[in-house]
Amino acid sequence: MLYEPQIKRKMSISRCCHNASGSWGGGGFTVAAATQVFLVLTLFVVGNLSAWQENVRPKLYVELGPEDVLKFLGNESVVDHFKLVTKDSNSLLVGARNIVYNLSIHDLTEQQRLVWQSTEDDVKMCIIKGKAEEACQNYIRIMVVTSPGRLFVCGTNSFRPMCNTYIINDNNYTQEASKSGQAVCPYDPHHNSTSVFADNELYSGTVADFSGSDPIIYREPLQTEQYDSLSLNAPNFVSSFTQGDFVYFFFRETAVEYINCGKAIYSRVARVCKWDKGGPHRFRNRWTSFLKSRLNCSIPGEYPFYFNEIQSVYQLPSDKSRFYATFTTSTNGLIGSAVCSFHINEVQAAFNGKFKEQSSSNSAWLPVLNSRVPEPRPGTCVNDTSNLPDTVLYFIRSHPLMDKAVNHEHNNPVYYKRDLVFTKLVVDKIRIDILNQEYTVYYVGTNLGRIYKIVQYYRNSESLSKLLDIFDVAPNEAIQVMGISQARKSLYVATDHRIKQIDLAMCNRRYDNCFRCVRDPYCGWDKEANTCRPYELDLLQDVANETSDICDSSVLKKKIIVTYGQSVHLGCFVKIPEVLKNEQVTWYHHSKDKGRYEIKYSPTKYIETTERGLVVVSVNEADGGRYDCHLGGSLLCSYNITVDAHRCTPPNKSNDYQKIYSDWCHEFEKYKTAMKSWEKKQAQCSSRQNFSNQHPNDVFRKNNV
Question: Which ranges does the record mark as transmembrane (predicted)?
Fold first, then answer.
């Protein structure tokens, strides 16, 4: 595969003709030999001939520009470690190191800041206990608007977590109350924790001690069993939400049911009842409704491939029937990530199913017989948990784990890819009523600061998904927080160093061609104006790729006149989008003699470039005609080549031959340098492709219902 040289200087060697005759003066070279030298040189200079038409290719790859992104850098003298974003109709509240920023939701300008630093005594004690000064700061980890004008904030406070309540008046913050944040907020800023505010109560999943060895799910005064691996076994909390009578927690932990076979991490969903008041006697401050089950995100097969480590969860405010999550494999082995969707009914089915138990330390984990389950069923919501019988309380204490895993929808992940670590995600739904179409759009962040934009849709009751776009939002910075505003059509992204706002519909700025425009559910192609715009009913759109020729009439047919013996480059991409790198691109030639036929690549006539372009070497009359480039059934670009075999006249003096030869030698030296650069880049390109670009799910993912 030919790498396209980056040298932009143009030249023409149309002086060389197929019918030249004579010999090189004083050099002993025949014209035939000169022609062979020319053909060799052509392969070196082909990237710089005037026929490459550098500026006529449609830009199917477009970088994010300043007009696409608004950003906030916070306190640039130190790393803010942005971890938390809470939004309302006008502002974003952003938790950081020692500060809560109040930003305008319109342009991310700072409106106000609440500064809350640890006292000198707390910092000194933290350092005395062996913690680094960087960790001995107050990292904000919980922010809740408990009622209009009242903000509840918790921070790590130099490994002595505290919570304050503030009264908000005209963007001014007045502290109203303060209390310990133990069991609510983590001690260590690097600990993963979660919290949710429901029915005027705060539910948290975190650790309750300085060492981080006491994990807890807490709502004052109730908590999980302390130091009990059956309940929580070194969990990393990732999310929580409330629905109906229950609060759900999502985390990954060491799987106690796998311990006899080794060590493995499993993803979990746990739930507690909102009306749980604790039990009698020794269960007075303990949950009586805590249950957990495994979450299964895997590629199906006789031996399924599991993505065992959950990283984030998102639930649409407008659709409580399902939730979406990102998963990864262990980073100690082959790295891969997936997005899976789950229906809440599957979660309920798992918690209403059989319990799991291990009768002895050497026995296997097996389902509990229904006849051994006491009444009322453990884990259900009852009117007064303080009156539950001891049989129920002891059973749920020793049997918090359910036997059945919660399976994802459609028997397949929405999307998966190797050599990639997904961190966060948000989801948007787009419905076009007149077409009776609904699309689910996933924005998935990575540990390298990129966002993968994926669309999911249904065709003939089958769930299909494909990768639409990839944004470089914050190169080499892990995406820590993502949020979405349907009202403002904006995406909010936070890393440790910065916050960015990105438009959801960047139609005319992201796509200047029909092919990719019509596959984005936010956009449509305007045939009259030849531009991409936010979708309206009179625009072209084909998200499901059901009409392969929808863009044919919008493709620019470029005319090129080339000289006999010249080599010409035809290309659709200035830089091929990553989402299309593994797609099959096919070139067709419409010839007067042969009609339409598919071009087969060969080193002497047709060469494919890394950007899926076509180089036609040493053209003759038979190479004239139309060249079409297709991806699937869709036309990407088209060229009409006319071969001019009459304007070229042979040199008639030996000095002319010598001058041409001298020019060739001069160019040959330059292009030897270009070839060395090409070889280096080609080796790097091949290495990257072999390592990460051979995955069947890079663009399309077909799921069976």
Answer: 21-46
Q: Which residues are within 8 A (CB) of 434 and not within 5 positions of it... i.e. 6 or more apart?
A: 537
241 lies in a domain?
no
Find the domain containing 688 and state its range. Answer: 31-58+556-701
The Cα 155–Cα 136 span in angstroms is 11
* pLDDT above 70 (res 50): no
Q: What is the CA radius of gyration of the chain?
A: 32
pLDDT in tens, 366-406: 999 999 999 999 999 998 898 899 999 999 999 999 999 99
First to last CA, the chain: 39
Are 140 and 84 in contact by the 8 Å Cβ rule? The answer is yes
How much is the pLDDT for 515?
87
**316 vs 523: CA distance, rounded Å:** 22
Phi, psi of 170 (to 5 degrees): 55, 45
| CA distances, 536 to each of 313, 532, 547 (Å) | 32, 11, 18
- DSSP secondary structure letters along 357-393: EESSTTSPEEEPPGGG--SSPTTS--S-GGG--HHHH
* Per-residue model confidence as pLDDT tens digits over 95-120: 999 999 989 888 888 888 899 999 99
Strands in 564-633 per DSSP E: 568-570, 585-591, 595-598, 606-608, 614-616, 625-631
Average pLDDT, the chain: 84
Tokens of 120: 């000198």
- Residue with the larger pLDDT of the pair 628 and 40: 628
| Total number of domains in the chain | 1
Beta carbons of 275 and 222 less than 8 angstroms apart: no
The residues, any chain, with a CB within 8 Å of residue 601's CB and separated by 6 or more, are 607, 608
How sure is the predictor about 533, in pLDDT bands with cuts at 50, 70 and 90?
very high
Helix (H, G, I), strand (E, B) or coil at 497: coil
pLDDT (mean) for 462-471: 91
Q: What is the pLDDT of residue 291?
A: 97
Strand order through the sheet with 110-115: 84-87, 91-95, 99-104, 110-115
Cβ atoms of 447 and 421 closer than 8 Å: yes
At 345 the three-state DSSP class reads helix
**How remote is the C-alpha of 678 from its chain's centroid?**
31
Is the separation of the CB atoms in 489 and 505 below 8 Å? Answer: yes
Residue 201 lies in a domain: no
C-alpha to C-alpha distance for 501 and 478, rounded to whole angstroms: 16
With CA atoms as reference, report the closest residue to 567 among 614, 526, 532: 614
293 by Cβ neighbours in 10 Å (0-12 / 13-18 / 19+) ranks as: buried
Cis, bond preceding 603 (omega within 30 deg of 0):
no
Q: Is 323 a member of any domain?
A: no
Question: Going by C-beta distance under 8 Å and a sequence separation of 6 or more, which residues neighbour residue 125?
Answer: 158, 160
In this structure, is residue 503 part of a structural domain?
no
User: Residue 672: which CATH number?
Assistant: 2.60.40.10
